[in-house]
């Protein structure tokens, strides 16, 4: 979960060869994906609008 579009693209582009990658631009959107997919790992920015990675 990353609100910076450029960095989100960078992470996804570099990880997609090794992992199934889903992205989200905010915690609310990301949390909905987490509830549906039950991933083993979540990478989250700690400073985002709506709810940040620390509050989660």
**Gap between N and C termini, in Å?**
11 Å
**Overall pLDDT level:** 86
- Give the number of DSSP strands: 0
Stretches where pLDDT is under 50 for at least 5 consecutive residues are none
Rg over CA atoms, rounded to whole Å, is 11 Å
The coarse overall form would be globular
Strand-and-helix sequence, N→C? HH
Q: Tell me the helix content.
A: 25-40%
In percent, how much strand structure appears in the residues?
under 5%
GO molecular function: phosphorelay sensor kinase activity
Organism: Paraflavisolibacter caeni
Protein name: Response regulator
InterPro entries: CheY-like_superfamily (IPR011006), Sig_transdc_resp-reg_receiver (IPR001789)
Produce a short descriptive summary.
The chain has 56 residues and is an all-alpha fold. Helix content is 39%, strand content 0%.
